[in-house]
Amino acid sequence: MEKWTVDTNHSQVQFRVKHLGIANVAGTFKTFKGEVQTENEDFNPAEISFEIEAASLDTKLEERDNFLKSPQFLDIQNFPKILFTGILKRDSGKDEIEGELTIRDTKRIVKLEAEFTGIGQGRFNDIRAGFEVTGKINRKDFGLTFNIFTEAGSLVIGEEVKLHFDIELIKQTN
Q1: Up-side HSE of residue 84: CA atoms within 13 Å toward CB?
Q2: Per-residue pLDDT reduced to its tens digit, 129-159
Q3: pLDDT at residue 156, as a whole number
Q4: What is the C-alpha to C-alpha distance for residues 166 and 29, in angstroms, rounded to an integer?
Q5: CA angle (162, 166, 169) in 5-degree steps
Q6: Residues 151-169: what's their mean pLDDT?
Q7: How many CA atoms lie within 13 A of 69 on its CB side?
Protein backbone atom coordinates (compact mmCIF):
# COMPACT_ATOMS: atom_id res chain seq x y z
CA MET A 1 0.00 0.00 0.00
CA GLU A 2 1.39 3.39 -1.02
CA LYS A 3 0.84 6.40 1.22
CA TRP A 4 0.54 9.95 -0.11
CA THR A 5 0.15 13.12 1.96
CA VAL A 6 -1.44 16.41 0.99
CA ASP A 7 1.10 19.15 0.26
CA THR A 8 -0.67 22.05 1.99
CA ASN A 9 1.69 24.56 0.36
CA HIS A 10 0.39 23.61 -3.08
CA SER A 11 -3.25 22.79 -2.25
CA GLN A 12 -6.40 24.82 -1.63
CA VAL A 13 -9.73 24.11 0.08
CA GLN A 14 -12.36 26.57 -1.16
CA PHE A 15 -16.12 27.03 -0.94
CA ARG A 16 -18.77 29.37 -2.34
CA VAL A 17 -22.21 30.26 -1.01
CA LYS A 18 -24.86 32.55 -2.48
CA HIS A 19 -25.36 35.87 -0.68
CA LEU A 20 -28.82 37.44 -1.02
CA GLY A 21 -29.51 34.91 -3.75
CA ILE A 22 -27.60 37.03 -6.27
CA ALA A 23 -23.85 36.61 -5.88
CA ASN A 24 -21.35 34.12 -4.52
CA VAL A 25 -19.23 34.74 -1.44
CA ALA A 26 -16.05 32.69 -1.57
CA GLY A 27 -13.98 31.40 1.28
CA THR A 28 -11.10 29.12 2.08
CA PHE A 29 -9.89 26.98 4.92
CA LYS A 30 -6.23 27.74 5.48
CA THR A 31 -5.32 24.81 7.76
CA PHE A 32 -5.94 21.22 6.70
CA LYS A 33 -4.19 17.92 6.28
CA GLY A 34 -4.88 14.67 4.55
CA GLU A 35 -3.56 11.43 3.27
CA VAL A 36 -4.36 8.97 0.54
CA GLN A 37 -3.56 5.26 0.50
CA THR A 38 -3.60 3.29 -2.72
CA GLU A 39 -2.17 0.13 -4.22
CA ASN A 40 -0.57 1.94 -7.16
CA GLU A 41 -0.08 5.28 -8.87
CA ASP A 42 -3.32 5.10 -10.84
CA PHE A 43 -5.22 5.73 -7.57
CA ASN A 44 -7.92 3.20 -8.42
CA PRO A 45 -9.19 2.75 -5.81
CA ALA A 46 -7.74 5.02 -3.15
CA GLU A 47 -8.66 5.54 0.51
CA ILE A 48 -8.85 9.18 1.57
CA SER A 49 -8.78 10.82 4.99
CA PHE A 50 -8.96 14.59 5.31
CA GLU A 51 -9.14 16.97 8.27
CA ILE A 52 -9.90 20.71 8.21
CA GLU A 53 -9.40 23.13 11.10
CA ALA A 54 -12.76 24.94 11.25
CA ALA A 55 -11.13 27.99 12.88
CA SER A 56 -9.00 28.51 9.77
CA LEU A 57 -12.04 29.68 7.77
CA ASP A 58 -11.35 32.89 5.85
CA THR A 59 -13.83 34.84 3.70
CA LYS A 60 -11.74 38.05 3.74
CA LEU A 61 -14.19 39.77 6.11
CA GLU A 62 -13.46 39.38 9.83
CA GLU A 63 -17.03 40.13 10.98
CA ARG A 64 -18.47 37.46 8.66
CA ASP A 65 -15.74 34.97 9.63
CA ASN A 66 -16.47 35.47 13.33
CA PHE A 67 -20.18 34.84 12.73
CA LEU A 68 -19.46 31.68 10.69
CA LYS A 69 -17.20 30.41 13.49
CA SER A 70 -19.81 31.20 16.18
CA PRO A 71 -22.24 28.77 17.88
CA GLN A 72 -24.91 29.90 15.39
CA PHE A 73 -22.97 28.30 12.56
CA LEU A 74 -19.81 26.12 12.70
CA ASP A 75 -19.43 26.44 16.51
CA ILE A 76 -15.66 25.96 16.35
CA GLN A 77 -15.29 25.84 20.15
CA ASN A 78 -17.32 22.63 20.34
CA PHE A 79 -16.60 21.28 16.85
CA PRO A 80 -13.05 22.33 15.92
CA LYS A 81 -12.60 19.88 13.03
CA ILE A 82 -14.36 19.08 9.77
CA LEU A 83 -13.60 15.48 8.81
CA PHE A 84 -13.87 13.40 5.66
CA THR A 85 -13.10 9.74 4.97
CA GLY A 86 -13.89 8.14 1.66
CA ILE A 87 -12.92 6.19 -1.42
CA LEU A 88 -11.79 7.49 -4.81
CA LYS A 89 -12.94 5.32 -7.72
CA ARG A 90 -11.71 5.97 -11.25
CA ASP A 91 -13.99 4.30 -13.78
CA SER A 92 -14.05 4.89 -17.55
CA GLY A 93 -12.86 8.46 -17.44
CA LYS A 94 -15.15 9.51 -14.59
CA ASP A 95 -13.52 9.89 -11.20
CA GLU A 96 -15.73 9.99 -8.13
CA ILE A 97 -15.11 10.27 -4.42
CA GLU A 98 -17.73 8.93 -2.05
CA GLY A 99 -17.41 9.14 1.68
CA GLU A 100 -18.53 10.40 5.04
CA LEU A 101 -18.32 14.13 5.75
CA THR A 102 -18.61 15.26 9.37
CA ILE A 103 -19.50 18.86 10.23
CA ARG A 104 -20.64 19.79 13.76
CA ASP A 105 -20.72 16.08 14.70
CA THR A 106 -23.27 15.46 11.93
CA LYS A 107 -22.20 12.77 9.48
CA ARG A 108 -23.54 12.48 5.95
CA ILE A 109 -22.52 10.51 2.88
CA VAL A 110 -21.43 12.82 0.06
CA LYS A 111 -20.32 12.29 -3.52
CA LEU A 112 -17.73 14.54 -5.14
CA GLU A 113 -16.34 14.68 -8.65
CA ALA A 114 -12.59 14.32 -9.02
CA GLU A 115 -10.27 14.97 -11.90
CA PHE A 116 -6.80 13.43 -11.91
CA THR A 117 -4.61 16.26 -13.17
CA GLY A 118 -1.33 14.38 -13.43
CA ILE A 119 1.70 12.87 -11.80
CA GLY A 120 5.30 14.01 -11.92
CA GLN A 121 8.59 14.51 -10.16
CA GLY A 122 9.12 17.44 -7.82
CA ARG A 123 12.31 19.48 -7.70
CA PHE A 124 13.61 17.39 -4.77
CA ASN A 125 13.05 14.13 -6.71
CA ASP A 126 9.82 13.37 -4.86
CA ILE A 127 6.80 11.98 -6.75
CA ARG A 128 3.70 14.20 -6.80
CA ALA A 129 0.16 13.77 -8.04
CA GLY A 130 -2.67 16.25 -8.50
CA PHE A 131 -6.45 16.20 -8.27
CA GLU A 132 -9.15 18.80 -8.70
CA VAL A 133 -12.24 17.97 -6.63
CA THR A 134 -15.65 19.64 -6.90
CA GLY A 135 -19.05 19.08 -5.40
CA LYS A 136 -22.04 20.52 -3.59
CA ILE A 137 -23.55 20.02 -0.17
CA ASN A 138 -26.56 21.49 1.58
CA ARG A 139 -25.45 23.22 4.78
CA LYS A 140 -28.76 22.41 6.49
CA ASP A 141 -27.95 18.68 6.21
CA PHE A 142 -25.14 19.34 8.70
CA GLY A 143 -27.11 21.37 11.23
CA LEU A 144 -26.11 24.75 9.79
CA THR A 145 -29.69 25.98 9.76
CA PHE A 146 -29.34 29.69 10.59
CA ASN A 147 -31.55 31.72 8.24
CA ILE A 148 -32.42 35.34 7.64
CA PHE A 149 -34.66 36.34 4.74
CA THR A 150 -34.46 39.54 2.73
CA GLU A 151 -37.56 41.68 2.18
CA ALA A 152 -37.83 40.07 -1.26
CA GLY A 153 -37.97 36.63 0.37
CA SER A 154 -34.56 35.24 -0.59
CA LEU A 155 -32.07 33.84 1.88
CA VAL A 156 -29.26 36.09 3.03
CA ILE A 157 -27.04 32.96 3.20
CA GLY A 158 -27.72 30.30 0.57
CA GLU A 159 -28.23 26.68 1.57
CA GLU A 160 -26.13 25.16 -1.21
CA VAL A 161 -22.38 25.18 -0.61
CA LYS A 162 -20.17 24.66 -3.66
CA LEU A 163 -16.87 22.97 -2.90
CA HIS A 164 -13.63 23.23 -4.87
CA PHE A 165 -10.38 21.59 -3.78
CA ASP A 166 -7.06 21.71 -5.63
CA ILE A 167 -4.99 18.93 -4.10
CA GLU A 168 -1.33 18.11 -4.64
CA LEU A 169 -0.09 14.88 -3.06
CA ILE A 170 3.44 13.80 -2.21
CA LYS A 171 4.30 10.11 -2.28
CA GLN A 172 5.81 9.01 1.02
CA THR A 173 8.89 6.82 1.04
CA ASN A 174 9.73 4.46 3.88
Answers
A1: 24
A2: 999 999 999 999 998 787 765 555 545 677 8
A3: 67
A4: 12
A5: 140
A6: 80
A7: 20
Please give the C-alpha separations between residue 135 and each of 37, 70, 116, in angstroms, as whole numbers. 22, 25, 15
Instruction: Please report how many Cα atoms fall inside a 13 Å half-sphere around the Cα of residue 128, on the Cβ side.
Output: 18
First-to-final CA distance of the chain: 11
Amino acid of residue 54: A
Dist CA 82 CA 127 (whole Å): 28
Please compute Rg for the chain using Cα positions: 17
Provide the pLDDT for residue 148: 62
Whether 56 contacts 69, CB under 8 Å:
no
How far is the C-alpha of 124 from the C-alpha of 143, rounded, in Å?
44
User: Torsion angle of alpha carbons 26, 128, 3, 41, nearest 10°?
Assistant: 110
3-state secondary structure of 56: helix
Give the domains, in start order, of the chain with CATH numbers. 2-171 (2.40.128.110)
* pLDDT of 67 higher than 60: yes
